[in-house]
Amino acid sequence: MEFIKHQIEKVKPHFEKGGKWEKHYYSFEALETFLFAPATTNDIKGSQIRDAIDLKRLMMTVIISMVPCLLFGMWNVGHQHFLAIGQAASFGEKFWIGVVQVMPIVVVSYGVGLGIEFVFATFRRHPVNEGFLVTGMLIPLVMPPDVPLWQVGLGTAFAVIIGKEAFGGTGMNVMNVALTARAFLYFAYPTDISGSVWTYIGEAKTVAGYSGATPLSLAADAATAGTNVIASFNSFGAGWNEGVFTFSNMFMGIMPGCIGETSTLMCLIGAFILIATGAGSWKVILSVFGGAYAMGLLLNVIGGNAFVEMPAHYHLVIGGLAFGAVFMATDPVTASQTETGKWIYGILIGVFTVLIRVFNPAYPEGIMLAILLMNVFAPLIDYFVVSANKKRRLQRATV
């Protein structure tokens, strides 16, 4: 590392004011501060709190919390592949298939996103925003393993330019950038991000009876057909993978789905890292789970169709609810900022997720739309919370 640092210091004068590459200073600065903590200090006098954290280090903490989902997702992509073609394989073979399929998606996401960030930084003459360090990992994790790479690049470009840079860059965006990319692809190319695209098959042929359905699609089909959802889960996979949709399997994430969203367990490990380091709000995470579970229980009481009557705890392990609650809803830019607002914000995300799933068969995965909707209303929630606090304080002051 000392050698790298020495080489960076050697070329740094060329990027500083008066150097021949002056206009590319902020691109150079982004690389330098990514590798090494900046040695700059401020000149403000008086007492100050100092630590080793900055925005890049905070973003790296969030990325580390997503590593369990990424690694498990790679293995699961390979596992589902070999199940679909009816072949036995070792752990290493499964993981390698996942690496080969997933890493290009990650590379395209970071390549396109950071490329756009560097272009905007150069023309606007401002430091490169660090927010895409997290977004660049989130986008691949919410994609199906078979998504075309050109769509990943297009969705990433749309999300960065329209969803973030148009609003002023990191910290100014109204909606979660990664979910903006997914929503764009969902509505622009629905056949490539819905249906049976959740398992990577490649050039191989599937075994007889194979289906790449997800638990949410099965539940929606059961509601339409009037059959019991749990019975559909238990009977699915006959002839090629009996018991794929047991509750324990869905909690572990050993099922078809988006690359990083299937495992509730891996998401909870990520939640522990975020909460322990202070990078994520436990109030938002807990309230999303709580809102979804409470809404599920209420629908169980009301009844109406098979999806409505599905046990409430199944809503917590199917689809991307756990991933959305841990990594999307906790986005500090688009979430509520007040402590009371965080509870309201999270509960409403959980409630709307279940409502969208159950009553809108066109969008069986409700967490995406629920978070984007509440991103828009988060400032309004905070406004009413702050107004209520002011009103209570004024009343106490007049007593």
Largest beta-sheet characterization: none
Compute the number of helices: 16
What global shape is seen? Answer: globular
Distance between the termini: 64 Å
> Any idea what the radius of gyration is?
23 Å
* Low-confidence regions: none
Please identify the structural class as seen in this structure: mainly alpha
Number of structural domains: 2
The ordered H/E elements are HHHHHHHHHHHHHHHH
Q: Main attributes?
A:
399 residues; mainly alpha; 2 domains; 16 helices; 0% strand; globular
Summarize the structure.
By secondary structure, the protein is an all-alpha fold. The chain is built from 16 helices and no strands.
Structure description:
The chain is built from 16 helices and no strands. By secondary structure, it is an all-alpha fold. α7 packs across α16 and α9 crosses α10 (229-235).
Architecture blueprint of SSEs:
Elements: H1 2-15, H2 25-35, H3 55-85, H4 91-124, H5 132-141, H6 149-163, H7 177-188, H8 190-193, H9 215-225, H10 229-235, H11 247-252, H12 264-277, H13 282-302, H14 321-328, H15 339-359, H16 367-398
Helix pairs in contact: 1-2, 3-4, 3-5, 3-12, 4-5, 4-6, 5-7, 6-7, 7-16, 9-10, 12-14, 13-14, 13-15, 15-16
